[in-house]
Amino acid sequence: MIASAIDEDACINVITTLNIQHLESLNDTVYEITGVRVRETVPDWVVDTADEVELVYLTVDALINRLKRGDIYRGEKVPRALANFFRRGNIVALRELALQRTAEEVDHELHQYMATHNMPQGKLVREHVVVCIAPRPLASKLVRRGYRIAKRMQGTFDCVFVRTPGVRLSKREEETLQEVYQLARNFGGKVVELDGDLVAEEIIRYVDRVGATCLVMGQSARSRLQEIVRGSIINRIMRETKSIDIVVVADSDNE
Question: Is pTM, for the whole model, over 0.70?
Fold first, then answer.
């Protein structure tokens, strides 16, 4: 992908290239496709704030030939790259991902144009996504998923955590929480903390107050016995919310 931005006051025209696997919001998707967790990521605002985004790609065969010639990696790294990240199936899937991401940028520009010119589609109610998190490794995945849903629907998203009075988080849990908050802010999300003894009740009250259209939650960490004794947060929210889409994201031992 090529992103360009122009600062007319400073007379600066910046053009940069970016591989799709390095976009922060797609980190989990790339991992699911390739089995490789990309550590060097770039905030999505680099692409979101560009004046123009252009997709540039090679055919699968052309890329593989470049790898074999040593144009990308030195000789000793080529066989390992072809057998792992740059397998043919991975390249095809990443190309599709890049096409989807570029199409989202085009949709965003169209939506802005229609809203500016008071065209009917531009007057639709804006989607509002609420991401419910806990201080667990899954939280980052939830935020990335919530951001992608909000962007696809041209909406906004909130990252919400419910603190239970009397329950003290460990140092590591607090650190995890702050890291997730920063990730949400990097995506342009709003961070909200609520206080209450009943997590489900606080979330239900919040999504109703803000008029949320989509709720993103993680798979329950409670055991079956705990759910029987204390109840299922997800089940209660599903019973007591109306006109709202609920996305439950599976946890993973590989996070």
Answer: no
